[in-house]
């Protein structure tokens, strides 16, 4: 397949390495020193499968050089979505699928305001990866799953092709019956994990070990579950217990990417995570006081330092 990663950070870079090494033509969209390093040395992933280096088919900051691709793995931070989406336009062919893996539940709607909606699918990932130096990515833990589908859940050859390509690399890419339920299930986890680990400057191990923090996490997750159900999302029963169980698969020192970003002084996605839980709850009359408190505590750090 010909796949573009817009862009080639933690998520896009992880898939760029895996798909390139599996023989696919990957156009890695990146910029600045990160792009220079990828061009010079390739992209290095230090992770669950050891050290893997890949030299993508193309590495560029100009999507017009790439031309139409089969699929775009769309993974930039929430605040960068609009500009990155506009930059994707030259890579759209007649049946190109754009799969967003951003945290939060609003990326597909936001993309559909910029790209022709028939190109936009929806997706969610559970993996923990970060850029540690130009051209270098580090994965924390061993989990790595990618769940995606057409927004109306119809069968789709283009989704199946990308799913098979990712699954063949050893990452999990199961078929998805209800992508909205999948996205919101991750959001129930992530809004709580992001809010608590970033605002509390703590780890998943702390959440599991300190009953007061565990209760805060569960209260935040319970609110987000209520928001989802009020919006008509068919979440599985016991979702808060499920996300609690997921915490046990994260290494004790693990944190949400929001917490890693805040510590590094980078902008954080608070508007699209805790802020979205509050905003989307208010739209359907569901109070979210715990998420509102976490949102308020994180707002001063929104733009990094
Ligand atoms: N990393 C993780 O473990 C997980 C992340 N997610 C979500 O995935 C999304 C992406 O996160 P992640 O991969 O970590 O982000 P990163 O910050 O690692 O990567 C994003 C990259 O996009 C680049 N970029 C942004 N806009 C453009 C552009 N217009 N042209 C070229 N490059 C651009 C950034 O460059 P620059 O630095 O120059 O701005 C950066 O290198 C987020 O919503 C995140 O919450 C979800 C699950 C896990
Ligand atoms: C919680 C986690 C690690 C799961 O993939 C994540 O999404 C993030 O840190 O951004």
From TrEMBL:
Domain of life assignment: Bacteria
Q: Which residues form a coiled coil?
A: none
InterPro entries xrefs: 6-PGluconate_DH-like_C_sf, 6PGD_dom2, ApbA, KPA_reductase, KPR-Related, KPR_N, NAD(P)-bd_dom_sf
GO CC annotation, single: cytoplasm
- Does this UniProt record's set of keywords contain NADP? yes
E.C. number: 1.1.1.169
Can you give the residue ranges of the Ketopantoate reductase N-terminal domain?
8-152
Q: Briefly, what is this protein's role?
A: Catalyzes the NADPH-dependent reduction of ketopantoate into pantoic acid.
Protein name per Swiss-Prot or TrEMBL: 2-dehydropantoate 2-reductase
Which organism was this protein described from? Jannaschia seohaensis
